[in-house]
Design a protein that fits this description.
39% of the residues lie in helices and 15% in strands. The strands form five sheets. The chain has a seven-stranded mixed β-sheet, sandwiched between helices. The chain has a three-stranded antiparallel β-sheet with strand order 13-14-16. Strands 1-15 form a two-stranded parallel sheet. Helix 3 packs across helix 4 and helix 9 runs parallel beside helix 14. The two termini are 39 Å apart. The chain binds ligand T4K.
Amino acid sequence: MRSRERPLAILGAAPAFAEPLHVGRPGVPGRAAFLERVEAMLARRWFTNDGPYVVELEERIARKVGVKHCVLVSSGTTALCLLASAARLEGEVIVPSFTFVATAHALEWMGIVPVFCDIDLETWNLDAAACEEAIGPRTRAILGVHVFGRPCDTAALGEVAERNGLPLFFDAAHAFGCTHGGREVGSFGAAEVFSFHATKAFHTFEGGAVTTNRDDLAAAIRLLRNFGFRGLDDVSALGINGKMPEVCAAMGLSNLGEFEATVAANRATFEAYREELAEVPGLEIRDYDAAERHNWHYAVLQVADEEAFGLGRDALVRVLVAENVLARRYFSPGVHAMEPYRTRDPSAGNRLPRTVRVAARSLGLPAGAEVSRDQVERVCAIVRSASARSPEIRDALLAQDSPLPAEAG
Ligand code: T4K
């Protein structure tokens, strides 16, 4: 049975949640195992630099993903930078704008110009035809992003890459534990990058990885993550400190041991949202492909029909935040509308109509294993009440600050 509508904080009631309900609250599923590992690490006095936990986690992830190499690093952003350096990328790289800013920032930080390309409305990932059109004389690679764990059309992008003699990489920050065509994400393209940030389905506090079958890329990234040291006093490349500490790998090993249970709990949360929001007019929840495996970590809503729902995405986020439900406008605005890209090309949005459209309508709800069924029901009661009382809410928001917050451009 649907939970009842409720009085709304945006209209003067007390907030539904006394404490903030976050989108990315991390779990600690293997807590006891983690603490044991930390004790052993402290006794061993080996805290970083290719310690035994890092080595073990690399082996286990490579086996799970089905690739020859997993190289662990300090974050997903560092992984992208190190991969760009190892692959000797320069010039321009094609990326989506509908992603977290780190995808583009990592390239820019490495002196590479990200060229933003539109998405398709099915996957919300790089559109292969648009990608081919965006290729120019300075293009050196294509970097797709499996947004919200939904894989890119790897075959179509692979054809574009091959036809144009370009390497294809993927930012798989959201997609650990997902499959595409039955094959594990992490094994596509020349290499893929994971983020193991605390807010991810599988996390190591902070961390990231590059997974690849290419011996040259793996060897170069190993070298570059440790300042370029080949031997004790032998620095053979312009490296940096991108190492993952042992305490992070200990967290990773402990979380990996519980990953299936985490995924099952994520799935229960997602399915509760799907059930509770099924009949709300104008709203769509991004569903997952029943034929594949997923990490079920994201519950992303789209205000697909503002008139039917009664409110736009930004107004809905304000309703939720007033209740202490810290929903996020992922990913809005598109990266093209953030600095330094916005100043460089203020009209980029005109070439990215589908990105602008999706970015203006989507929001991430608190999801995953840390969110209970009861919390989902309460969040959904707020959403339903927001729709039912949308005229009053619009008036209240206009009275608070006119005009209503602008939609993403
Ligand atoms: N590529 C893509 C496609 C990515 O999405 C990301 C990162 C990257 C690359 C780069 O990977 P990393 O270098 O980060 O490894 C968050 C995460 O920080 C970021 O990792 C993630 N994507 C992005 C989608 O979300 P913010 O700034 O939007 O949110 P943040 O970090 O403030 O956390 C979100 C919510 O989680 C907050 O409301 C509070 C809660 N939270 C967060 C942390 C860290 C907790 O409850 N506990 C915590 O420990 O970026």
